[in-house]
Design a protein that fits this description.
Thiol Ester Dehydrase, Chain A, about 25% helix, alpha+beta, 4 strands
Length: about 100
Amino acid sequence: MKAKLININANEISKVKKTRFENVKAKIKVSYDYDKNNLLNLNYLIKVGDNNYDYLITKCQYEISEYNYSLDEKIVLNQAIDLLHERIEMLLSLLTEEMGIKLQD
């Protein structure tokens, strides 16, 4: 199975003058669709913020290819999410570090 990043959009939302970020967490939602060529796409919506504000919203889209087409769709989706897990963590880490935000463990 291969995953190729085909689109990314990251926006800093709240220009809050903070020197210390507390209780900041990332909320990740994953959805999927098929493009016009019937290729599987995984769509990530990642919001980084605390209880009051979202500081960063990132949307990523990955094209999934070269997987076992005879497998059940749910199994393929779970495999793709597992494949991308580390990449999403690295991307999120880089973006939040650039903004000076340390995520909670």
